[in-house]
């Protein structure tokens, strides 16, 4: 169950990062509220996962899901630039997450 909580926390991290971007510096109410709700839920689920999982593993996977997910959302939905270097960086993060899970 801890892994499910951790995965959902990572997905919510992507959601709050996207909502933060959409809030335009907290000047738009609805995205700001979505961001706050997703943040609270993400931290709550991360906390639940840490009851069982080690700190280093859970935090690294949570931030990795958020970082790679935010990169994908930025490219897919916001038209952000794609370069070989950015793709390699995202793949290295995924490789790190995979290696941490195996350890």
How many beta-strand runs?
0
Detail the poorly predicted runs.
none
Q: Quick one: biggest sheet?
A: none
Distance between the termini: 19 Å
Oligomer: single chain
Order of helices and strands: HHHH
Give the count of helical stretches: 4
Q: Tell me the Rg in angstroms.
A: 14 Å
Sheet/helix structural class? mainly alpha
Provide the number of structural domains.
1
The chain-level mean pLDDT equals 95
Strand-residue fraction? under 5%
- Percent helix range: over 70%
Shape: flat
Organism: Roseibium album
Protein name: Guanidinium exporter
Transmembrane segments: 29-48, 60-78, 84-102
Keywords: Cell membrane, Membrane, Transmembrane, Transmembrane helix, Transport
Question: Can you describe what's shown?
Answer:
This is Guanidinium exporter. One of its GO terms (molecular function) is transmembrane transporter activity. Keywords: Cell membrane, Membrane, Transmembrane, Transmembrane helix, Transport. InterPro entries: EmrE-like, Small_drug/metabolite_transptr, Small_multidrug_res. The chain crosses the membrane at residues 29-48, 60-78, 84-102. The chain has 103 residues and is mainly α. It has one domain (2-102). Helices cover 83% and strands 0% of the residues. The chain is built from four helices and no strands. It has helices spanning 2-22, 29-49, 55-78, 84-102. The protein is flat.
